[in-house]
Specification:
The chain has 15 helices and 13 strands. The chain is an alpha/beta fold. The chain has a single domain, classed as Alpha-Beta Barrel (Anaerobic Ribonucleotide-triphosphate Reductase Large Chain), CATH 3.20.70.20. Strands 1, 2, 3, 4, 5, 6, 7, 8, 9, 10 and 13 form an eleven-stranded mixed beta sheet that branches. It starts with a helix and ends in a 9-residue tail after the last strand. 56% of the residues are buried.
Length: 452
């Protein structure tokens, strides 16, 4: 009887509560594709990706059909391309075109890894790749980019921070048709992780194997309904226990899909990333989870405390369910992709400053936030620096995915469509940080990084 009840519960979570496998992501090492001739390197990259991932999409669809579990997307992550650009020289955008062509050939939704790791300094290859990002994103459809500008161990590279503010502005301005969605494919990290299956920040770390399967599972609606079922008289520790048990069930579903994909593709299984990743669909919202816990509206007093409990309980439930939990695993709070966040931003309950406070206790950071198109590059850099400081001091991953809405001002609405949703243009403080940003150099690592 318990088995039948578990089956019925899983069916209900899928049919009514938006449980899904957000992505099956194949990580592929491209280190053996490096060559002093960039064209030869691009050919090697195309061949390796199309061989390794030839059956990825088909396998994901077969598993989805056989088990009745929605698999929303199949994706690929690759070795940070700046490493290959450092060997070959030449125009890094050639690599972006090779990645895009390979991704289209195998039929995945996105490919991540047009990336550079510059937390302590930039090589010529790193800088060349970073400066090419706006053009690479404008000229491709499926390529995603990320740059890691800080870590707890290294501090924050403020030269890279300044450059990334300029790059974000330039990427928005170069986006075809003025949609600004190139910046939706660009993430600036502190303490990035090597096994993240979620875009736009996924890349295949150099300490990973040649090829691996990582799974990202999501179910904000499942968690919300579990809390609702507990009623308003449950204590906060009882709510935390409910979230933990629900996260356990969600993670087991992800583990099942990941292990099955690994077996069928003959590729080692990596991790399950249990990140509550919302969508614009009604009911698939992290903001609504927080409101179900007891907030009148997300952004109001108590929001950070509720989010801290949610994030912690999700991680605890995931670790109980699998020894292979990794990636970012927690609660995402992207504004444009979460209808509850959108509503709170429109009403004024949710500000960028409150979002920044929330990022101290959740996964990732200032995500899919639309800002006025005339925001100075120095201000964008300063927001990135603030978010990186939270990550550096707290020894956690933080990131910025900021969208300067070209031609729009505070209060306007920017439409992305699909999983990216839509977002209101949020106000930015006018006080200039230009002198601070122009100093460059490095913010030193905190004292607690000295653990050797």
């Amino acid at each position: 009887m318990q088995i039948l009840e578990n089956i019925r519960e899983t069916i209900r979570m899928i049919d009514e509560e938006f449980l899904d496998i957000r992505t099956v992501t194949m990580g592929i090492s491209l280190l053996d594709c490096a060559d002093t001739d960039i064209d030869v390197s691009c050919d090697k990259i195309y061949r390796k990706i199309t061989e390794k991932a030839a059956d990825l999409v088909k396998t994901s669809r077969e598993i989805s059909s056989e088990y009745g579990i929605p698999v929303v997307q199949s994706r690929i992550s690759v070795t940070p391309i700046a490493l290959l650009a450092s060997v070959s020289g030449g125009d890094p955008v050639k690599y972006a075109h090779a990645l895009d062509r390979a991704a289209k050939t195998v039929g995945v939704s996105f490919i991540g890894g047009y990336s550079a790791l510059v937390q302590k300094g930039m090589t010529p290859g790193d800088e060349a790749l970073i400066r090419s990002i706006p053009r690479a994103l404008a000229e491709t459809d499926l390529v995603c980019s990320s740059v890691n500008i800080g870590t707890t161990k290294a501090g924050i590279n403020m030269d890279a921070v300044k450059l990334m503010g300029e790059i974000v502005r330039e990427a928005a301005e170069m986006t075809p048709e003025g949609k600004c969605n190139s910046t939706a494919k660009l993430v600036v990290f502190c303490n990035s992780v090597e096994d993240n299956p979620f875009m736009a920040g996924a890349y295949h770390g150099v300490s990973e194997g040649d090829c691996v399967i990582n799974v990202g599972v999501s179910g904000p609606g499942v968690v919300k309904m579990a809390i609702r079922g507990a009623g308003k008289d449950s204590t906060m520790d009882e709510i935390a226990e409910i979230i933990k048990k629900t996260a356990f069930k969600i993670t087991r579903t992800g583990q099942l899909v990941g292990m099955e994909a690994s077996k069928r593709l003959h590729v080692p299984f990596g991790i399950v990333d249990l990140s509550l990743a919302p969508t614009p669909a009604v009911g698939d919202s992290v903001a609504e989870i927080l409101e179900e816990i007891g907030l009148e509206e997300v952004g109001g007093p108590g929001t950070t405390a509720c989010l801290a409990m949610l994030n912690d309980a999700v991680k605890k439930g995931g670790v109980m369910a699998s020894s292979s939990v990794g990636g970012l695993s927690g609660a995402f709070i992207p504004v444009s992709e979460d209808q509850g966040m959108i509503d709170a931003a429109i009403s004024g309950s949710l500000s960028i400053e409150k979002l920044e406070a929330m990022t101290a206790v959740c996964s990732v950071g200032l995500d899919m936030i639309v800002i006025p198109g005339d925001t100075p590059a120095a201000s964008i850099s300063a927001i990135i620096a603030d978010e990186a400081a939270i990550g550096m001091i707290n020894n956690k991953t933080t990131a910025c995915r900021l969208i300067p809405a070209v031609g729009l001002q505070e209060g306007d609405m920017l439409e992305f469509g699909g999983l990216l949703g839509h977002g209101p243009v949020m106000p930015i403080r006018k006080a200039s940080p230009e002198v601070m940003i122009n100093r460059g150099g490095r913010i030193p690592a905190p004292i607690h990084s000295l653990k050797n």
